[in-house]
Design a protein that fits this description.
Radius of gyration: 55 Å
Distance between the termini: 93 Å
Length: 219
């Protein structure tokens, strides 16, 4: 059974690792911005707006009192016994009363939307709790896992490269040894047959001088 890891591209893992980092950074930034916006709106609804409308109520009481005083003075200017119209003063008083009533109603409106905003904020935080957990806990674990994976794969690839080079070197050495053996085999003479060996031996024996004594009749 093959034990080789089928990894086709370390760069794909590294690109995914980089994309995951970018996603985590953007998600963290977006969540932080949303939380800040919620806090800002809550501050505006629960502190700034109530304080503003309380001041408007106080101002409305003062304007109503001033408008009433102006109307009273206008009525006292007519000394001929005919009732004074005091149209402008009456309009000013009516406007001041409307502004005071509006400011008093806004206290209840702000209180209502402050409670509503708090409820929506709590629901929002509950729905995003899973995303925050993933961004703050799970993604860092995934990044660490990918980093360990790349490190292990690179180490494995380095070992495989060394092994491949060693095997290639052994194959080359074997090839060279086979080539040398073939060359030596080609340079050696072909083996002689038994008949050729016998003939050559006989010829060599005939060519050698004999040391036997010459017969007397020939002396």
């Amino acid at each position: 059974m093959s034990t080789n890891a089928k990894v086709h591209s370390f760069e794909a893992i590294k690109r995914f690792h980089g994309s995951l980092i970018i996603f985590a950074e953007e998600a963290t930034g977006s969540l932080g911005s949303l939380h800040q916006e919620i806090v800002r709106i809550m501050q505006w609804l629960t502190h700034e707006q109530p304080s503003y409308w309380k001041k408007q109520i106080q101002k409305g009481f003062e304007e109503v009192a001033a408008a009433k005083a102006a109307l009273s003075r206008a009525k006292m200017k007519n000394f001929d016994g005919n009732p004074a119209s005091c149209i402008e003063e009456k309009k000013a008083l009516q406007k001041a009363k409307w502004a005071l009533d509006h400011a008093q109603k806004q206290i209840d409106v702000v209180r209502h939307w402050g409670i509503k905003m708090q409820q929506e904020s709590d629901e929002y935080r509950g729905r995003l709790a899973r995303l925050e957990t993933m961004v703050n806990l799970e993604i860092p674990r995934m990044l660490a896992l990918l980093e360990n994976m790349v490190t292990a794969l690179e180490a494995y690839a380095a070992i495989q490269t060394v092994e491949t080079n060693r095997m290639a070197g052994n194959d080359e050495q074997s090839r060279q040894q086979r080539a040398v053996g073939n060359k030596q085999a080609q340079e050696q003479p072909a083996p002689k047959s038994e008949e050729a060996v016998s003939t050559e031996t006989a010829a060599q024996s005939a060519a050698q001088p004999t040391n036997q004594p010459v017969p007397e009749e020939h002396q």
